[in-house]
Design goal:
Blueprint: E1 17-22, H1 36-51, E2 55-57, H2 79-93, E3 99-104, H3 110-122, E4 127-130, H4 143-152, H5 170-176, H6 178-181, H7 195-217
Parallel strand pairs: 1-2, 1-3, 3-4
Helix pairs in contact: 1-4, 1-7, 2-3, 4-7
């Protein structure tokens, strides 16, 4: 049976854990594509589904809360409140499933995921919100994401256009938005990014995701 929910007919669905990649559609500097976060989330979700037969790959939520990237052409955002509502309603509609795992690839979705998790927990609906943790990683479009994309989609990375940006505190980013802090949109330094580093980081994140889901299911 296919591991993609969308390819199944309803009598074949059963009661799996639905894995939903949650990304973004926003600027990632002059060298990375707008759907960087979505590609990372989808790739991690695919690893989880391949590793655990109880899981099935659900639809991707690719336009989310990216208000901090306002002012850069290409950025699309539906805000925190709407993103929260989308996640909540999606999980509610999956009441035929064994639960929903949201695999997040965008730090700006943290508030929406927390709020959605609180609502779903209050309704006793099984849902898990997971996001990558990279100690010492760049805030946005720096070495971390550039390495991941060199591993996942090297043909979309334009290292010749990569530039370094500031590393502001998260509170300053939230208060002022990216455009006021970095004309390039980069928060960090892509210099030194490699596909090998990206592969190692990706494998570490994937292992954490699988282990987290295993604990949740147990």
């Amino acid at each position: 049976m296919t591991d993609a929910l969308g390819a199944r007919a309803w009598p074949d669905v059963g009661a799996p854990v639905v894995v939903v990649p949650v990304g973004s559609f926003e600027q990632h500097g002059p060298h990375l594509p707008l759907d960087t976060d979505t590609r990372v989330a989808a790739a991690l979700a695919s690893v989880l589904v391949a590793a655990r037969p109880v899981c099935v790959l659900g639809p991707t939520v690719g336009v989310t809360a990216s208000g901090e990237h306002h002012g850069f052409p290409g950025t699309l955002s539906i805000g925190v409140e709407t993103t929260t509502a989308v996640l909540v309603e999606l999980a509610r509609s999956a009441d035929w499933s064994a639960g929903v795992v949201f695999v997040n690839g965008h730090g700006g979705n943290a508030a929406a995921l927390r709020q959605a998790a609180d609502v779903l927990a209050g309704e006793s609906r099984p849902a898990l919100c997971w996001g990558p943790r990279v100690p010492g990683g760049d805030l946005h479009a720096g070495r971390t994401e550039t390495s991941l994309m060199l591993h996942l989609a090297p043909e979309l990375v334009r290292l010749d256009l990569a530039v370094a940006g500031p590393r502001p505190p998260l509170a300053e980013l939230v208060a002022h938005g990216v455009r006021a802090l970095s004309p390039s949109g980069v928060l960090g330094d892509p210099d030194g990014a490699t596909a090998n580093e990206g592969a190692t980081l990706f494998d570490t994140l994937a292992a954490d995701l699988v282990a987290t889901v295993d604990r949740w299911l147990a």
